[in-house]
Amino acid sequence: MIDVLIAIAILLGSVVLFIGISYLNDHTDRPEGCDELIDEAACHACKNTQCLVKQKIELDDHDVAK
């Protein structure tokens, strides 16, 4: 029975740690100068459709086109 409680505690601890790290990451400011490190011309050559940088560039391009 104690083994089950330890396993549950480890699992819950991992979930709480993940949520805490995600929260802190979302609320951390980007360092100065990091916005200009992305080469938009090279970014469009990438085939990764799940990339958040690429999605933001395409969204910005879409907004500019309107």
Silhouette = elongated
Kindly estimate the percentage of residues that lie in beta strands according to DSSP: under 5%
- Strand/helix succession: HHH
Largest sheet: none
Unreliable residue stretches:
none
C-alpha Rg, in Å?
Answer: 20 Å
**Structural class by sheet pairing and helices:** mainly alpha
- Return the average pLDDT rounded to an integer: 80
Give an account of the 3D structure.
- With 66 residues, this protein is mainly α.
- The chain has one domain (2-28, 39-65).
- Helices cover 65% and strands 0% of the residues.
- The chain has 3 helices and no strands.
- The protein is elongated and about 60 Å long.
- The N and C termini lie far apart (62 Å).
Features:
66 residues, mainly alpha, 0% strand, elongated
What secondary-structure arrangement, pairings included, does this model have?
Layout: H1 2-26, H2 40-43, H3 52-65
Task: Please outline what is shown here.
The protein has 66 residues and is mainly α. Helix content is 65%, strand content 0%.
